[in-house]
Amino acid sequence: MQRWIVITACVLFLLKIVAWYLTKSVAILTDALESIVNIIASFIGIYSLYISAKPRDENHPYGHGKAEFLSAAIEGILIMLAGVFIIYESVIHLVYPHPLKKLDFGIILVAISAVINFILGYIAIKRGIKNKSAVLEASGHHLQSDTYSTIAIIVGLILIYYTGFHQLDSIVAIILSFIIIFVGYRITRKSIAGIMDEADKKILGRLVELLNQYRTQNWIDIHNLRVIKFGSVLHVDCHLTVPWYLNVRESNMEIENLTQYIENEFGETMEFFVHADDCVEFSCPICLKEDCSVRLHPFKKRIEWTLENIIPNNKHQL
């Protein structure tokens, strides 16, 4: 998929250069220059996908998936730099305007690039979500942001064509540059969050729902739940409190059941490290096990697991 993005970026860049040559529109020129960012980012994306696909080794026990976040962060920064450059060029042409030519041909060529960009961006985002690839998602959003800016350029060119107000070319480019900068910021922010292992509240929330749904009497408590993303792999670890008298095989069976429930929802892209804790005396009032022969205190209250109480590294108690 990333190879097609590279090929398309190169073709569209040439198409926009032709459109600029015909029209001398600064908006089209800046759109073409942004395509250079697409090309550079696409090559970076291909390399990062190659790196992230490498198997784990002694120096990278969790794999190389973080390379995708780094690539997406670089792409976001490049997008923001492109936006700043567009502002610079647009201001110059706003102060020193020049007449535009052959707007009809330019509009047609730019419209073709917009359609291709949008379709390819939509496919890249879908593939990125499906494969949990930050690179493909970032590339898809970049392509679609390019599409939206191109549509605005087309609208501006049509207005110029009918009104003759050539300064509108630079005004449209300046407005679009701020949109481009915002998109670049969002991509960079998401990538940095992945690099810094920021908690993904959406994934954690779904995990908590599943744990409450499939909860068994032997799952007395779950705490210290964490999710870390490495490329397309989600690393999940937590502590599971089970009755202290279960043997190793029985405890492992509970862990395997928990793992299976989660894998059925998220697929095999998740890996688990579950630590089994033995229950203690203060666990009795919240323990749901009905046939416990060693209970020291009567059951008082079922504690529902939430994001607030399942993430801290503390066993639950009343």
Which key features would you list for this structure?
318 residues; mainly alpha; Alpha-lytic protease prodomain-like; Alpha-Beta Plaits; 3-stranded mixed sheet; elongated
Give the total of domains.
2
Q: Main sheet?
A: 3 strands, mixed
User: Going across the major beta sheet, what is the strand order?
Assistant: 1-2-3
The helix count comes to 9
Mean of residue pLDDT?
A: 80
> Which CATH top level class of the largest domain fits?
Mainly Alpha
Order of helical and strand elements: HHHHHHHEEHEH
Quaternary organisation: single chain
Structural class: mainly alpha
Structure description:
The chain is mainly alpha-helical and 318 residues long. It folds into 2 domains: 2-195, Alpha-lytic protease prodomain-like (Up-down Bundle); 201-310, Cation efflux protein, cytoplasmic domain (Alpha-Beta Plaits, 2-Layer Sandwich), CATH 3.30.70.1350. It has 9 helices and 3 strands; from the N terminus they run αααααααββαβα. It has helices spanning 2-23, 26-52, 66-95, 103-131, 134-163, 168-195, 201-213, 248-266, 307-310; strands at residues 221-230, 233-242, 270-278. It has a 3-stranded mixed beta sheet with strand order 1-2-3, with helices on one face. α2 (26-52) packs antiparallel against α5 and α2 (26-52) runs parallel beside α6. The longest helix is centred in the N-terminal third of the chain and has 30 residues, at 66-95. The chain is elongated and about 90 Å long. The mean pLDDT is 80.
